[in-house]
Every structure is written in structure tokens, then in C-alpha cells.
Amino acid sequence: MKILHLIQKPQNRGAETFACQLANHQLTQGHEVKLVSIFSGEAELPWKGEISSLRASVKNRFLDFPAWKRLNRIVREFQPDVIQTNAGDTLKYAVFSKLIFRWNVPVVFRNASEVGRYLNSKFQKQFNRFLYKHVDWVISVSQASKKDLVNHFPFLQSRSQVIPIGLEEKSYIKAIDLRSKGNHHVVHVGGFSFEKNHEGLINIFQKVLSTVSGAHLHLVGDGPLRSKIEDLVRAMNLENRVTFYGFVNNPLDFIKSADVLVLPSIIEGLPGVLLEAMYCKTPLVAYDVGGISEIVSERTGSLVEKDDEDSFSQRIEENLLNPDLARIESAYAQVCSHYMNKEISRKFSEAYQRIVSKQRLIRQSS
Taking the complete model, does pTM exceed 0.70, yes or no? Predict the structure, then answer.
């Protein structure tokens, strides 16, 4: 089978990283795979091959005829059996290119979040309805993500399924010595965007310090709101208790080194960082949003009602001072059994086969 993956751009983000990991496994399975980015980027992604770029215009993304034409040329030359669009503007570019240049390849949309949270106007909803009308199949990362999408666009019910995100097997993860920073280490990994709720995290951490005075917060990641959070840390006189690392190539090493990983996000699909914590045998605390409750329960971690900062801080304290070893082992077993990319990739291939077979039947009957 020939598979074409569309990604937003080469950037260190979960959607792009998972698309590359998935594509690598599909290569191993014997498929022919091509990766194409909408926009140019500089990040090095974990893809074994070359990433082509449509060199799309960020300022003209709603009327980018040259980029739509380039995608058409790639589709005509590569002749994929299926095209998977992975977040960002990928679905938009695929749909417009397909409609204008009339290529006939099934389009799969990978839904990795809660789409409804981003529909802030009637125009946005109508525009997204138009795009989804031209999607052949949707693969959502969690039941919550699927439910959210279908609630807003009920016509997608009959062409949707759930396949979760997965992890790559690691033979060794190196722990980082963080003892110079304090006695108890709280780690957060994620981009500085409003969804990740860093401001709430700083408030929560300040509460933790009132009980666990030797605690230190390690913030791994970068993004547009980083400077704002740095200002907040200074204003709260927490400079000696909070460290900013920016983007790192080895986030698993930080997770492995943590006493607890935290995720107080207000919007999530199925965050891979929680699976990574389980795989590293690191306790975790997270808000109950999106599909998080589908992987985090009292058997595998600490789940807190959204916006309950007092309970969140208490669960952090519990995990720092008295970690539940049975829970840690249960979480690790869950990830190894159900969330490794080698098996996850097979589920994607099975979905593609069904979509392609259905397309062939439609062509034969017409």
C-alpha cells in the first residue's frame, strides 16, 4: 500500500512526532510511505526518509493555489492509496487540492484533540463542516475526542473510529541527576500554550511548597507563552524553585528523573506524555479532561477534577512523599500491553485497508 502523510511543518510537536513514528513502522510493515509538510520548518523529526514541503504561504493559507497545485502534483506522481492528514492546516490543504484538481484518493483525518474547543464562531463551525464533509474517514485519538467531534458534526458518526497514540520501545532511558535543584522533583513537559495551563501549574506548585519545602519544578518545552510564565515566576519570587529548560531532545530522561510528572491541561486529546510517564515508571497527576480518564485511573495515576488546584497540589504531595509502587507497576504494564507503536501502527494499516476496499467497491458499482 502507498501511504501519504501530511503534516503541518517540521516542528517538535506531538502530532508531527507521532506521524513520523507511525510512518516508520508502516515502512517496516512493507508499505511505501511519503511525508509532506504544508509549511517549511527546521526541526529534525524522527522520520527515516525525506520530508517534502509544499512551501505554503502562512499569510495566504485560505487561498494558497500554488501549494494546492504542488500537492496535486505529488499525489499524481506518488499515486497513494490513502492520504492521512495530521492536525493543523493539513486537512484544509488536502480538501481544497482534491476539489480543485479532482484527484480521487481517500482522505483520512487524524483527530488528536477536542475540535469543539476551537470552534469559536459560526463561520469556523460552517467552514469545518465543509472540510469534514469531504473526509472519507476519521481516526480519533480517544473516545472523548471522537465524541466531541461527532457531537458537533453528527454525519461523521458512521465514518469514525478510535486508535490511540502509542510509544516507541526504548531499551534504555538515562536518568538526569537533579539533586542540585532540590529534594523532590516535579516535571512538566509541554509547549507553552494556553491549553497546557502553565499559569495554573505555577499556582499549584506554590501550594505544594507550603508542605514540601524542598520541591523543585522543572518546565521542559518552549512556546509563545514562555516569557509570560517566566515573568509570573519572578513576580512570585519562585526563581530558585522553578527551572525553564526550553526544548530538549531527551524529554524522556527528564520524565525518568522526576518524582512526579504533572499535566494540569485544560484541553487534551490523549497526551502521549502521560503514557511516557507510565513507561518510565514515574507517578503522574493530571486534570480529568479530554481522553485522559481513558488511560489514567486510580490503578495507574492520580486524576483530578479540572480547575481544582487544591486537590491537584495534594495529589502531588502524596506522590512526592509516599509514591504508590503498585500503581506505578500497573501503569507500566498497561502501556506495554496496549500503547506501543508497533501494534498501534497495525491498527492504522487495518483501517486503511478497509477504507481502500470500500473505495474500490464504490468505483466498481458506479
Answer: yes
